[in-house]
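Assemble and predict.
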Amino acid sequence: MQQDTLIIGGKEFTSRFFLGTGKFSLEKTKETIESGEVEMVTLALRRANLGGGGNILDYIPKTVTLLPNTSGARDAKEAVRIARLARELGCGDFVKIEVINDTKYLMPDNAETIKATEILAKEGFVVLPYISPDLIAARALRDAGAAAIMPLGAPIGSNKGLLTRDFVRMLIEEIDLPIVVDAGIGRPSQACEAMEMGAAAVLANTAVATAKDVVAMARAFKLAVQAGRTAYLAGLGRVLEYTGEASSPLTGFLQD
Amino acid sequence: MTKLLDAVMDRYDRYDFDAFTARDVAEALENDTLTEEQYAALLSPAAAPFLEQMARKAKYLTARQFGNSVGLYTPLYIANYCVNHCVYCGFNCQNHINRGKLTFEEIDHELAAIAKTGLREILLLTGESRYHSDVEYIGKAVEIAKRYFTTIGIEVYPMEVEEYAHLQRCGADFVSVYQETYDREKYAQVHLSGPKRDFVYRFNAQERALMGGMRGVGVGALLGLGNFRKDAFAAGLHASYLQKKYPKAEVSFSVPRLRPYKNNAENNSNDVHEPQLLQVMLAYRLLLPFAGINISTRERAGFRDHVVGLAATKISAGVKTGVGGHEEEEKGDAQFQISDPRSVTEIEQMLFTRGMQPVYRDYIRM
């Protein structure tokens, strides 16, 4: 059987569990990455205190692919600048575009994200845009050269799970790019559900970072993501949409 | 420009805080988002027995929004000349204290010394005197700070949109202006002279700062000056309406208080002891889960250590409240005595012990 790998930007990943590092104690980062068998981690460049105390880059194993995000950017121009800076600082070509100009709900600005994606894809970046799940925006992002799409499952940090499931499903069905569910995933079972639906990967941060045992929770997420993926590949059995099957068929009256 | 003011002031006297019941408080705690009335209930005396439940909820919300990261910063007073006569303030123009102002060279030395401690966020303060510390002077100080710090806040007199825009171009990101009290009558009584007497001009400062391009603004009431419950209620609405009108603005609270007199035999219902102070902080957090809350060295170490992660998201360290004093000798007296003299390293250690992660920089200057 062919190995089930995820390919983004020409890079092969066996793990489909991405980890956000924004809300962690740095000393636990390495152990958490290892226990979750994580191969891609996001990091906020604005927090990377190069040469100073608490520099996240010192805590991430070198084998892991860095996905620097543009958090702090409030429009496309700022996102582009942060992405270029990330590349200059040696964080590689991967970038997660995050444009937020709403401090209350932290909802991403899809329009600005499309603009930034277009510019950065042309410059050779592997662009993973973080968006509100919207099919039309996702198509525009695909056309702009995105390498994957990262729709939010629920408001970031809310741990509410796949509130946007119907909209994420549209992306999975219509967009021929890896769909990585990012934000809002609060528990492993929700990550599992996203994977069963056909998401290519799941990213979690708050759910792991705020757990009592961070390292164990990363492992739980890894297992849930694997279970969901396996179920997706196995082909889920039929699930009845309605209350049940009528014992006497509704169409039994037909003659001829 | 008076719209925010009207919205807040219309509500200032709306609720009788003594009329709320335990049931009102319990109901407020059951909801994910608060109505204004529920917010008022959380600030009422009826909420006092619910402090523990409020703390639990606040801790959860703080962790959800900020994880376990806590921002570190320090203030630097660059001048303490002041033209206002505020009866409660050590800097007031009638007080015969040592006045001083740092030269640009001194500012540079001070900032370099602070930067050596690892901090990347600075708050520059002056007394309120356009004569001694004009906008150009503050702007130059900000430009110097830009060499060492990624985030620069200013806490100076309220100014015009264009002046804020100038300081923003110089490198400032955040503007804090405290209304002290939202009770206009009380406000007039305690601000005897000087431009600060203009309640409305001060109230609209945050909005002018945002119009000038600032990234964020701080609001706050000096708790205990007026009715602290009403003032905290108004400050919460002030912050909330600012963010609603300017959705990308980062809003934050500071929680200065007038300390009750020790050995005060009478139990004054407006005294802000630690339980009341905490109640206000928790209510701010429950109202606006996304807002920053700063905890200054006016409070003792034991209090500060426990409120980070519970409600506070930013803590000062290595603080001096005189003019200068980090590298150079102090050139002017302090505005207030600090209760927590710990260094940056000591605060870091405290945070690590409590399982929190100190954050030094959180911004890339564009």
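The two ends of chain B are 29 Å apart (CA to CA).
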